[in-house]
Amino acid sequence: MLQVSDVTVLYPAGPGEWNTAVDGVSLEIATGEIVALLGPSGCGKSSLLRAVAGLEPLSSGDVLWDGESVAREPVHKRGFGLMFQDGQLFVHQDVAGNVGYGLFRQPRAERERRVAEMLTLVGLAGYGERRVDTLSGGERQRVALARSLAPAPRMMMLDEPLSSLDRALREHLVVEMRQILRDADATALYVTHDQGEARAIADRIGVMMAGKLVQIGTPDELWANPATTEVEAFLAPAPSD
Ligand code: ADP
Ligand code: MG
Fold first, then answer.
1. In the chain, what are the domain boundaries?
2. pTM, 2 dp
3. Smallest CA separation from ligand 1 atom 27, residue
């Protein structure tokens, strides 16, 4: 289980001045649970995810896994898989090379077995020898997901992983993504500014505004009982997008 305990992230904003990106956020994610962080651009979602992952220092607070602080552990020792909007694939390697990237310590046969298993999981069986630059945007993000999941991270952290894709593909992929994360028994923190995406992927959604976690609950709870008028306004479906 992940526990985020009273985490604050400050950025320097000039001599003696600080910008509070994340303001005393606490939340828990149970093993096997998918939690989305939802909120408008600039509300601190990425800063919180990066702080939990170890990519950003905590100004105060703690991050615990199964009751033990990981706040002093470097990123690669936390055992968290990361995925971003731009999948950051290695264009000079084929799909299998990308998916097997985190498995370099394993014997070749085991690595190949795991790569094939991951490609099947994300619906790209047989794509191992394809060059990355021949893939569509959606296929690339599936490869990025397979690469993050391959080393069996104890937790997945995804920051707007579908935001670079068009809406139709996004709506389709988010449903697949939930199933893939479920099939992998993944515990996940999924950052998005898109309420439809949050609703489709998450067991619970945490709504962030101006650095604070203002409400967390199941999608049904949130839409039935928004805690503030800001949350209510934000959750109201946009007229078009
Ligand atoms: P979100 O992911 O919800 O869009 P961010 O966490 O990226 O929000 O940003 C939260 C706030 O922190 C914003 O005001 C942003 O400008 C600021 N911020 C983000 N990253 C940095 C940084 N590396 N240095 C200084 N300020 C930053
Ligand atoms: Mg962000």
1. 1-75+187-241
2. 0.94
3. 11
